[in-house]
Queue: 4 jobs
Job 1
Amino acid sequence: MTDVTPSNAPGQHYPPGQHPDLPPPPGTVGFVGWLKTNLFSSIPNSILTILALYLLYSAIPPIFFWAFIDADFEGASRTDCASAGACWALIDVRFNQFLYGFYPPDELWRVYATALVLILAVLPVLFDNIPFRKLLFINTALLPITGFFLLSGTGSGQDALLQTVETPQWGGLLLTMVIGVTGIVASLPIGVALALGRRSNMPIVRAMCVTFIEFVRGVPLITILFMSSVMVPLFLPEGVNFDKLLRCLIGVSLFSAAYMAEVIRGGLQAIPKGQYEAAAAMGLGFWKMMYFIILPQALRIVIPGIVNTFIGLFKDTSLVLIIGLFDLLGIAKTVVTDANWIGLIHESYAFVAVIYWVFCFGMSRYSIWLEAKLHTGHKR
Amino acid sequence: MATETIDGPKRGSLLNDQRTRAIIFQALAFFLVVVFFIYIGTNTVRNLDALGISTGFGFLDSPAGYDIAMSLIPYEATNTHGRVFFVGLFNTLSVAIAGIFAATILGVVMGVLRLSKNWLVSKLVYWYVEILRNIPLLLQILFWYAVLITLPHPKQSIVFFGETFHLNKRGLYMPEPIAGDGFGLIVVALVVALIIVPIMSKMAKKRQEATGQTFPVFWTSVALILGLPLLAAAITGFPVTYDYAELKGFNFKGGMVLRPEFVALWFALTVYTAAFIAEIVRAGIQAVSHGQTEAAFSLGLKPSWTTRMIILPQALRVIVPPLTSQYLNLTKNSSLAIAIGYPDLVSTFGGTSLNQTGQAIEIIMITMLVYLSISLLISMMMNYYNKRIALVER
């Protein structure tokens, strides 16, 4: 082997195939190279980059200064906020209201307990490798019952185990979570039933399901909430009075069930006919065929769509403020009507926007993660 | 023998037969639904009697008795609830159409920029999409409204374009064009241009298919649509005068005004829906395989032709169905107007009129039917378009 030196000096000769590797041309590697290929590859690209930088320069520093540098974090009313920036003292003072609405302070431990139960119930659904998964699933199945009794109580009076807390006292993030979780839990089974009904061979059942799905999907959620708050009391016999929150929960659940049904129908349509025929050939009846063969495959395909529906549902819970419930956004609107905090609407909205964003962004990341995990076998 | 087993003459119990079961099950379901409706129907009639509300649509002819801040048709408080319905409907349609128009443009631009090779721009659009679509629309509407109504008072208006546009907490004031004599000729010229353009593009296509010669359809169309009305205007001596908004006392008089409710709703609907449309456009363009671009280049097509004749037609097939549902969502979401007091269908007819007359069932049913019809109409138009661009297979 010849003695190779990494030089490009003229006059030096190498046998064919023995030329040493040359260093890359200057400006194609490292930071400068990255800048050249990604930001300044052509004149239009450079103009775009400069425009984007200007946009960032004119947006980020003012927001940053407003939210952090110039902001006041403590105080008892807006008069304590002397500086030009945000007045986060509002959030500090009203933090509990943002989270629980008007839930009695003595009973707040019940909200924490419910939150713990909820987290323990959600974990085994989200991840399949956590310990005691089977045991936790029992908790998940019992969630509607435990959640209901923990939050609303078992009765009023001296000897009641848990004092009743009326639903108008629920509010803030608690109410948002109650509506969101109930909607999610209820809409999935109703959606599966509606999707199966729409794919059924029975004409009357199919017609009823199609009518329901298309009707609900064709109207805004607001009109359904109006219907549940104004029309439903007229539908009930005299003396029977539904809780306002319960009516709203039914409306939200039915609304998202119609969307869920369409997502699940997409999954059902993607299952090849051979699967149905094979299941029937094995002697499985309709329900066993669905439960063991079709639905597990169909639901797995449409997990991203289901999570997207959940995200939409979670965002749509904010609409209940229009029919007079104080969810997270409702509280954000209300706290700034207090004379001490009047006019601090931007701080209030910014705070709840961050909460909503964290939940929705988290759900969408989870969906992407799960999709990647489930697709391992099919990836090209 | 064999036919006997196929036809299955030996049946077990009737209850085990699938067809019988289906009939029984459906009859039962139908019966339950009918009973349910009869039950709530009788309850409703009894409750309405107790409340002293008479059913029917007579209330549509009774006077509404309240003012509406923004109306496309002449309206006064003495007009009927029936007219309120149309005022609300037109307001809903105007914000929905303006929103669809702006969201499509912004969404397509964002979707294309998301695929840009420019790292900074691509990341910026990524965060635009992720932030905007993960915050409830209602919150965004309320936020933009809060921003707009904290603008300065009319006396300290923000002025631009040389004192012709005034922005303040009451809205955006603009000069209003007023048509003079001979304005009709300009409209006629525009209509003529709009008729000529499709004929020309068809003829150009025919000629290209027959002879291979191309014709600059796009630029000729632009020249026709802009040029003909301009020519007509020049002939008639530009018969358009402007009514400028002027500060009189505490408020502006004259001109056109975009109210903050409209601007907030329209802007929030646009940026929110555009975030979704951007993702749809990005996915649609990425769905066209890179081999198509390479094949077009190897045939010698220019990059602009490749985009227009190879990539776009294929991407549109993926884009149009989800885009349709975004248009529907935008139209339905425009009902959130009620939160900021923009007088759309739900907040005027479905809100104030409902509270005044108490005709909850009739009003909510009419409102729902209107949204259903709008949804069906948009679906039909987009399905027609989708059929036109769909892949024609043998």
Job 2
Amino acid sequence: MQQEFEVIIVGGGHAGTEAALASARMGVKTLLLTQNIETIGQMSCNPAIGGIGKSHLVKEIDAMGGAMAHAADLAGIQFRVLNRRKGPAVRATRAQTDRALYRQTIRTLVENQENLSIFQQEVDDIIVENETVKGVVTRMGLRFTAHAVVLTVGTFLGGCIHVGEQNFKGGRAGDAASIKLADRLREQPLGVDRLKTGTPPRIDGRSIDYSKTEEQPGDNPTPVLSFMGNVKQHPQQVSCHITYTNQTSHEIIRASMHKSPIYSGAIQGVGPRYCPSIEDKVTRFADRDRHQVFIEPEGLNTHEVYPNGISTSLPYDVQLDMVHSIAGLENCHITRPGYAIEYDYFNPMGLKANLETKSLTGLFFAGQINGTTGYEEAGAQGLMAGINAARTVQQKEPVILRRDQAYIGVMIDDLITRGTQEPYRMFTSRAEYRLVLREDNADLRLTLLAQELGLIDTLRWERFCWKKETIEKEQSRLDNTFVQPSHVSKAQGENLFGSSLEREYSMSNLLRRPEVSYKTFAELEQFGPYMEDREVIEQLDIQAKYAGYMQRQNAEIQKSKRLEDTVIPNEFNYANVKGLSNEVLQKLSTVKPSTVSQASRISGMTPAAVSLLLVHLKGQSRKQA
Amino acid sequence: MESTDTICALATPTGNAGVAVIRISGPLALPIGEQITDKRLKPRYAHFVSFYDHHKATLDEGIAIYFPKPNSFTGEDVVELHPHANPYIYQHLLTTLNKLGARLAIAGEFSERAFLNGKMDLTQLEAIADLITSGSEQAARSAVLSMQGKFSKQVQEILQQLILIRTHIEASLDFSEEDIEVETRSKMGEELTILNQTLEKLFIAAQQGVQLQKGATIVLTGRPNVGKSSLFNALCAEDRAIVTNIPGTTRDVVRADIQIGGLPIQLLDTAGIREQAELVEQEGISRAHSAIETADLIIHVVDKPQSILTSKSNEIIVLNKIDLMDATETIRDAIQVSAKTGEGLKQLQDQITIALGITIQNQEPPFSARIRHLEALKRSKHAVQTATQHIQHSSPIELVAEELRLAQQSLAEITGDFTPDDLLDYVFREFCIGK
């Protein structure tokens, strides 16, 4: 029995669904294979989308026609803008989501997507001929063929769950691990290693005394995540709550520390530094007398809550004691124990920039299999892997986002150039062009590309064109409209612009002043009418305030473009480059960078080594010419 | 392959010789060449020009030639300057070129560009590779040399302060949801002010180190007829300037290369500054003013105790003609000298050495490495200053973060690579992060 497709996606999580949707949207016949159709779009960890750095990814996925922002708008039950009082580059939207609603929204999208089929069956093997992937084999022995296969298997590869001194195989509480596929992949030259992550116990919300906690309501006005989103799409809004661990909780943890698999040595995998278990926090920051716990609702139609901040793999009885020591949780009922999970990941330095493995043509990896953590990181890779798998089928050039173009570009370049030793999560500090890569301009950065790739619908394209043109027209009007001293009284000048006008100023010049915003101009009726679209006004304000920094970062971007444009051939032999040190030589041979720019970011590269590479490449191309 | 930046370097061996060649290559070569010569440069034409510093003071006279791309050594726009081969002059020219936007080339960079632009034969590929390798090794050696001892320790200390502030700022940006205590803006402002002062101090110290390579400029000033030219001749130990008892005899700046305590010094005699001067003398006085502005040290000569004004930080007051005075007429804080008899000259020379803040025993590593450090420190300092202003003006904190990222990027040119992941490491060590 054999069925033919063009692209196969293995896994129905956040990477898998974005990959499947993107590939199918590009008109390629796509199959999504999952262990369980009921868990398509499942949020395995806490029920929230976005946050600092992550929301940037979500908005980029959205600009490229992806599903995540849309699903979060439909499933979000509490929305907040983090860093609201800081500048626009670090502002970030976060949505607490109803787990069931989110899953349902994603499933509806997947089921209704043209060119996309779904099949429920665990994949046991990949078909490889001449180092090229030809398809997959499922547990029942069914063969599905395709030109490209995208593996988005999350924590399921060789997954092992730990609770206290017990451990068992599993991909997520309640789901089986993919052991056979893991064994099969371990035979390939892919560089496998182990990572670890964890979750807290879940609690029945009816058994919580909320009067002992702080309420944290959502923001008003309520933000949206998708550029096509609308507040009216949001379901009923609810609050989160905050409570704290205390000295008693910490004593309980310390007394049982030897039973934690992390400290007993049962867990070998490396966990994230920014998402430590409560055992870790108590050990590493022993002087802290409390740690924050966010009580996050799991949804509108369930009583379960997610106590974010006490991820643990301690034995269940210790978890119970520890939770009961926390204010408001004294009498609570735990519905599911917390656990740590260890899983296989592949060194992402074994990937090309299009997320295809270097060793097997047509095999793409996305999500936690590449050592990342987080729905947003997974979704973003899924999107790019899906796009590039489809491009392979279409026999077109790969689509690679640059570091100055998108957080997605930063993440993938980080992964393939420097690898990762812990679950990789996005932070704004990872982006050297942070001021350029903002939530608010993700559409302006990426929609045009998405349109060219056939990823977005007409409605989005038209809305985008309108917005872009309106901004440009109004910007040029502001550049060319001059306010004369005679237009404003002295008092008005001081009031509006911080000082009376001594000479004429263009409106865009005035807009650069810290005390001035676009809305300030409303007072000057003779220069109206003014734009009313919130997003347009936002762009005009931000572009004016950041103008100097934009220019500087753009100059930096131009400077590195020469290296970006110098491509290193795939089969390039670094040993032929005279003068490279052994260390540099070895790193270059491992990473096999695709451009000199990527080469320059490999740890240990010197400017001299970059020069040698440039000279050698030029020499080679001249010899051929 | 079009380069985006413009580079410059001395193309002839260092040291005193007849003529030196400085090459400028890149998109800004022509505008910079025209600015430093204040002349329109025709292609492939040997112009006889004056070289000016950024204060428009004349540094030297010589030849300037413009080679438009692609018919030049590198295949880019190239301007060659041929000044006299005097270390003082060409170092000063290079510094001026840096200020105008041409950075110092790294070893082999001109050849690299020439090769990339198809200006060199393939057979030369290996030679260029060798050049880059040995150049970088040499740079590494001199970097290692300069990274030993006090300078390195101070750079490291500054780096630690900078990292600490960045740790707090980045934590406040990426982890604002966490229950962590990040420093207040005012505290950050205070720390940045201290950092700025430390950087300033280090910069001055490093500058003095570079001075040693470059030599120092000392200008003699004072009212007409106080004996500046006599003192000038006494310090030169020969008659270079014309000495008369007519006020206003010296009308142009007179220069001499001398050594004091082993330090190469360019000594400048200037026109005495007075208000009623005729045209030629006025021009001399204005040149004197610009010489004073760029000088490392000013020797202010007086011949009467009462004519002392308040002294500036880089100024030594000399009371000349003590052979004509009573001992009771001497003044404090002035060095008593008689240019005529030579009395007090030794004390003056000692004072000059002290004032330049240099002890001659420390031989510094090669010039190029040190100038680079200085440039890096300067950029770093500038970024920290802008960051401080952002704090004071309550600008968005990510702009402070951006400046400090640049500040550290500049320091990294001295201390080596520092990645965002390294910074995150500090954040996770400092703060308990993680819901």
Job 3
Amino acid sequence: MKVSRAWLQTYFDTPLPDTQALSDALTFHAFEIEETVGDMLDVKVLPNRAADCLSHRGIAKELSAILNLPLKTDPLRQPLPYRDIVSPYLTVEIEDSNGFDKLTAGKCLRYMGAVVRGVKVRPSPSWLKEALEAVGQRSVNNIVDATNYVMLDIGQPLHAFDAKGISSILVRDAREGEKMTILSGEEYTVPKGTLLITNAGTSEAIGIAGVKGGKAAEVTAATADLIIESANFDGTSIRRTAQVLKLSTDASQRFQNRPSPELCAYGIREVLALIQKIAGGEIAEVVDEYPARPQESWNVSVSLAKMNGILGSRFTRAHHRL
Amino acid sequence: MKPDAAPAQGRLHPITIAVREMAAIFGRMGFGIAYGPELEDDWHNFTALNVPEDHPARDMQDTFWIKDQPGKVLRTHATSVTMRKLEEMAKNGIAEMRWINPGKVFRNESTDMTHEAQFYQLDGFAVGPTGTVTLASLKGTFDRFYREYFGQNTRVRFRPSFFGFTEPSVEIDVWFEAPGGKGQWLETAGAGMLHPNVIKNAGLDPEKVQGFAFGGGLERLIMIKYGIPDIRLFHSGDIRFTYAFDQLTENSKQGTV
């Protein structure tokens, strides 16, 4: 995961130390650094932390703890706005062979879709271009850049579809021999059972779930209305699809490490705010299909005695701080 | 050849010399030597070691799978031997164990100066009743191993890392000063406290048994010690390379106690 010091700085009031000091702090407390080039650090996030640290927010949180610097803002601690999940503009249905019914999670753990009407697709403002280019990403247009920025910022993969002709989304398994053209123009025959995002009206595939968007609903300069997807798909299923199609993407790498489906709501909030800021438009209601909604939250506890027993350390209550 | 000339003598390979030397050092700390099959099953190489199927951790090691033998792999690490030993411990009701597993391992990757598709690993573990074998024991063990193998100026440092089979996991760096050269930190092994799932998979109770495990390239240690630039020399069959090593080192002379 490539992170830039300037981007990390947006999380702190206190000026961060130089790249070398950041590199040392992470190396000895969290992650190996593959390389540093100018302002950029390539952080080697391993599978145990990939669910929360393939993001600038995740790395900033680590640095906050290591360097004892308070975070200025944490987008995941800000309360979510209330949203009605019924929308007159968009319906979402999940037809998932692994799930038994609407309430049992299969391969699609959550699907949030938002309709944005009347956006202006144009080149991104320079701050956004620079932020993306600093971490080795290519700027496409303000909409695509907004989705990439929020993914790299808080870790939630997002996708923008051109909403023209789409009023209902069906998340379903691919049929035998089903073909699909991805954004880069390459055509794939997807294996039966691969989870697809489809236009329910035309039955056409508009995305390979969790991996890559389709050409059929590409956002172009002519796009006026958008459907923004903030979803969560089963890690095993995404990993298999990415392997079979030899199509490893920023999104598939994140989903295969099982980020929390709770993150979807933060992702859509952040990306809608950014799109309004740089592309205008009017946000319609947000649809939220959430088969994997947790029934209760878990607490994790560990005792001092257990820690000392494993580490061979002699920590006492005096070392303990919340 | 003149009839009275002494017959030509064979020579130990530098890897053999190093294994004997390391075994002597670990032997003095109570470790025996364990071996296991190079053609391993998926259970002992991955699944039992808390690297489940379709887990991203499997991408960390490029594996040779065997044609027509589903579920069999050329072992990617000698940690599979640790798993077999832990199972033996459960089966025979043994309370503690210390073994090193020096052995050949295989990775499906291209070769260069520091990577070979087959190489040796020095793997090993120590387990005992909860609270007795800790992360601090691991540090002490490696501190002593490296001092005796590399020299008294050696220091050991841990960095956080991740392996499916240990929690917490660390990378072990060694501070090595080549004779007449500058000292530097070098990455030598991965290690950590055996994950409770691994203990459980062996049929042991993680509430009652804990311990550390480690593993790293064996050639790399020899390369550091003697300043060897290219790992491919070990399997080159070049007799001049083999003859450059003393067969009996100070450590192996001391033997095990």
Job 4
Amino acid sequence: MSQPLVALRDVNLQLGGTHVLQHIDLQLHKARITTLIGPNGAGKTSLAKVVLGLHTPSSGTLTRKPGLKIGYMPQRLRIDDSLPLTVDRFLWLADPAHKNERRAALERVDVAELQFKPVQQLSGGEWQRVLLARALLRKADLLVLDEPAQGVDVIGQNALYGLLAEVRDEMHCGILLISHDLHLVMAATDEVICLQHHVCCSGTPEAVSKDPAFHDMFGGAQIPAANLALYTHDHDHAHDLHGNVDADGNHIHGDHCGHHHD
Amino acid sequence: MIELLLPPLLAGLAVATVAGPMGALVVWRRMAFFGDTLAHGALLGAAFALAADISLYPAVVLMCLCLALVLVALQQQRQLANDTLLGMVAHTTLALGIIAISLQPEVRVDLFAFLFGDLLSVSFADVAWLWCGAVLILAILVFSWRRLLSITVDEDLAQVEGVSVTGTRILLMLLLALLIAGAIRTVGVLLITSLLVIPAASARRLSHTPEQMAVLASIFGIFAVIGGLVLSWFADTPVGPSVVVAAAAIFILTLARKKA
């Protein structure tokens, strides 16, 4: 495999006397979606912040591919109401490209109509799309998403994960996804890492879902194989922004259908 | 009349023009009280300048910067809230400044002029200096606008995208210190916050983009300076407070307009 985008070797992180991350080995590769799962307080966000360079490891090594461009999607940005900022202006901050490129990035994530809307009026799902557009505009090599599905309903989450898989295939960027929900994320993922301050288990979604450590972590929450399989092919139909399946649930095979499973 | 009013007018316009975009940043970043604290500390800087017999402006800028760094250091602890710290530092430095000035009986200083400004006494030389400073600050603002706005939107996001957050914050404090040093002679240390905050607040309702708000704040500031001078000329009121009252009047007028 080619040089990893980011490689962590035996990384430890102490925050205010707590040993948040213990002996973490992690490699993020291009065109791969890696999902971090684990209970609340397991250090998922801290690990993401180490990858982003917002936390410096207490020990261990962090290697980044030279010139790596990262696109970061926090859960949600809280922007003060005193700041008059449209989506267009928000994207301009990431990259002062021509207005048409900003429009194209928004069109790619199906929210072109938001271009001149004040950012304070965006819903959770709209924010995620706008942040994704911002990462696309910067041609990021690695996207880091912190709980992108919070405040978005199940079908909307599914649409978002489908979109991420498309982005991975088109841009060949690596994606690091943080989540605490299980099966929805598993479907769109190449590799799953279960974190509880240390890496409990990792591997493909199928392998991890059979790992006893994974079941221990979630208190025996069952993920039936059939459920996984169902979701694996769930992004074959078109969704609008809020995740409603178009045309009364009939499967509309869009132009992206079938491209993203090799 | 024009020879009398021209220097104060030009000086006031220089401060108001810069106070527009700077005030917008102060409002967005919720730094109003922070700016106020720096302004209070400016008086201590002025007292040191008098004691050491050095030039006023460098001493004030230096004092504001030291104070900004002290405040940043104090904010690292979590026991006391930000506004408590700022209130404490603001009034301690103000008290120290007044004591330091009173300990120098050989120096005749009009304390009132420092606190509330003395726009009518500025000379053409002052005006030249003020405009040099104004052009410098505006140039840096234009050059660094995207960085400044990025850290205002979200510091983590800015840092991930390669903006030096600490550097940009220090730059903003430096600019604020420069502006306060310049404004100390025009509206005075107690009123500078209002010239930063009121025009920017007035511009908010009428703006759709950050840049609109910054420019509109400058324009409102300019109106406030002209209005304040006119009021002062005809009603014989003190200039600094008149400018602030004019700014507040503009804010009230903007309330009549529907929100943009």
